[in-house]
UniProtKB/TrEMBL annotation:
Protein's UniProt name: Heme exporter protein A
Gene3D superfamilies: P-loop containing nucleotide triphosphate hydrolases (3.40.50.300)
Pfam family, one: ABC_tran
Keyword Transferase: no
Native organism taxonomy: Bacteria, Pseudomonadati, Pseudomonadota, Gammaproteobacteria, Thiohalomonadales
Keywords of the record: ATP-binding, Cytochrome c-type biogenesis, Membrane, Nucleotide-binding, Translocase, Transport
GO molecular function: ATP binding; ATP hydrolysis activity; transmembrane transporter activity
InterPro entries: AAA+_ATPase, ABC_transporter-like_ATP-bd, ABC_transporter-like_CS, ABC_transptr_haem_export_CcmA, P-loop_NTPase
Species the sequence originates in: Thiohalomonas denitrificans
Keyword Hydrolase: no
Highest taxon listed in the record's lineage: Bacteria
One of the protein's GO biological processes: cytochrome complex assembly
ABC transporter domain segment(s): 1-198
Length: 198
């Protein structure tokens, strides 16, 4: 992959299986976010392809999108909408919904109830991250792609994200996560990729 005519990374070939999390590490600017965006189909690689269930995601886009939940580095919550409205907006998109309500998801993510109806721009960075991550509980998506999900969270928040990941992997979900946080799961395997060396 190239950015601004400079090579970022090359010769990457890897697979992620149910119950596995691919942990991507690397120095700032090494291409972690770029790789996640390629895996989501948001950025085109200079060469190569991404396959989901053995098929190029460009050919199976509609199916792939319902199997994917991406939470980016910038949490992507709409500042003028409340946490509940943000999640309702998300639920209106293309997804297979779980039985969980937006209120239940926010409660599980530890967002104080009094924050549920205020515009997100008035929430702290960690609270906004919790709103963004609450989406994971509203979709049956098997593939979670998470860019720095532990950023801005306090220790309890980080433990909670680890528990969510543990449950997802134990249920045969897959995840790709950029983080330098140490992750270990009883019923899930962590595969590491370091982009620092190109
Ligand atoms: N939209 C873009 N257009 C052109 N170049 C970009 C774009 N996005 C990122 N880059 C460049 O690609 C390189 C990799 O950026 P990327 O955000 O993927 O790195 P990263 O490993 O996620 O960094 P960080 O750890 O700082 O978040 C950087 O040099 C960056 O300037």
């Amino acid at each position: 992959m190239e950015r601004n005519d400079e090579p970022l990374f090359s010769n990457l070939e890897l697979s992620v299986l149910p119950g596995q999390v691919l942990q991507i590490e690397g120095r700032n600017g090494s291409g972690k976010t770029t790789l996640l965006r390629i895996l989501c189909g948001l950025t085109l690689p200079t060469s190569g392809e991404v396959r989901w269930n053995k098929r190029n995601i460009r050919e199976t886009h509609a199916d792939f999108v319902t199997d994917l939940c991406y939470v980016g580095h910038v949490p992507g919550v709409k500042g003028d909408l409340s946490p509940l409205e943000n999640l309702e907006f998300f639920q209106a998109g293309r997804l297979r919904r779980t039985g969980m309500s937006a209120e239940q998801a926010l409660e599980r993510l530890g967002l104080p109830a009094e924050c549920e109806e205020v515009p997100c721009r008035r929430l702290s960075a960690g609270q906004q991250r919790r709103v963004a991550l609450a989406r994971l509980l509203l979709t049956e998506a098997r593939l979670w792609i998470l860019d720095e999900p532990f950023t801005a969270l306090d220790p309890q928040g980080r433990d909670m994200v680890e528990r969510l990941l543990a449950e997802h992997l134990a249920a045969d979900g897959l995840a790709v996560v950029t983080t330098h946080h140490v992750m270990a799961f009883e019923r899930g395997e962590v595969i590491k990729l370091d982009l620092s060396d190109g």
